[in-house]
Amino acid sequence: MHVNAASRSDRRSAIQRSAQAYADQMQAHLKSAPFEWYHFDRFLEDPHKDVAAN
């Protein structure tokens, strides 16, 4: 994903458009394969969880 701004004054809207495009792509992917998002599970776990306790 690239952020292309025509000018410095267009940066904020260019970033917003790119972020929205990324969110739209992610939403489309998740809708097409709703059970594939589990790949993000490890990021949702508590980083302070005692791994040795499992």
Task: Write a brief caption for the model.
By secondary structure, this protein is mainly alpha-helical. It is built from 2 helices and no strands.
Notes on the protein architecture:
The protein has 54 residues and is an all-alpha fold. Helix content is 48%, strand content 0%. The protein has one domain (8-53). The protein has helices at residues 11-32, 41-44. The protein is elongated and about 55 Å long. The mean pLDDT is 80.
Give the overall silhouette. elongated
- Structural class of the secondary elements? mainly alpha
Return Rg in Å. Answer: 18 Å
How many domain regions? Answer: 1
Give me the count of strands: 0
Taking pLDDT < 50 over at least 5 consecutive residues as the criterion, the unreliable ranges are: none
Q: Describe the biggest sheet?
A: none
Order of helices and strands: HH
Write a concise keyword list for the protein shown above.
single chain; 54 residues; mainly alpha; 2 helices; 48% helix
What is the topological layout?
Elements: H1 11-32, H2 41-44
